Amino acid sequence: MEVTLPIVITTALVDSINPCAIGVILLLLGVLLKHAKEKAVMVKIAATYIGVVFLVYILSGFGLIWFQHILIGLGFATIVGTFVGILVILAGFIEIKDFFWYGRGFSLAIPKKYIKPIQERIAHVTTSGAVVLGALVAMVELPCTGGPYLAITTMLAKQFSMLDAVYLVIYNLIFILPLVIISMLAYYGVNVGAMKEWKQKKKKWMRLIAGIVMILLGIFLIYYYQVGLH
């Protein structure tokens, strides 16, 4: 058994349409369109923000793989795979719950204590401020976006190679793709408010798809470590 490119691409695509990540970039672009004197400034700030998100995510991914690879090398492979698999399955059920009863009980979202600081930074964002904003958002939105990423990094950690490193880069490029597309649409005049409305209407479907994929990933991950090692 091995992790294949289709698995990486499919998981990354599902992770990339996460409403948390899309919501923050839409909020940022809405502010930039109001206050940026030139669209070139908007592009520069948005590109800096997206670039930092990409950098933090990929460094976090290598860190997770390194840590898990050490545990696997110490003989805890089955425990790591099973624990993460169960965790991802539970996260998937939470996402599916939000399809039916959004806002009730526990949800995978950016912690409330970080929402106001993010909004404050966005309201006065500059190019240098976008670096801090990107790092902050990338770290605090992990509870919202981290399920599929945790599953993939755990799969890659089993027998980490140069190909797996390439897979991780591809995953993160796909993850930021919607942020790039949304920024380009805003640059070319597509109404940010309309995109926000679209996101709100499709949010529950994004969560349903993510939930189903996470459950399948969790099951595959457990099988990958329980059976694939024998």
Note down, in words, how this protein is organized.
This protein is mostly helical. The protein has one domain. Helix content is 84%, strand content 0%. It has 8 helices and no strands. It has helices at residues 5-16, 19-35, 39-100, 112-123, 127-140, 142-157, 162-187, 192-226. The protein is globular. The chain starts with a helix and ends with a helix. 38% of the residues are buried.
Largest sheet: none
Instruction: Please state roughly what percent of the residues sit in beta strands, choosing from under 5%, 5-15%, 15-25%, 25-35%, 35-45% or over 45%.
Output: under 5%
Shape: globular
Average pLDDT score: 86
Count of distinct strands: 0
* Structural class estimated from helices and strands: mainly alpha
- The helix/strand order is HHHHHHHH
Tell me the number of structural domains.
1
Taking all Cα atoms into account, the compactness measure Rg is 18 Å
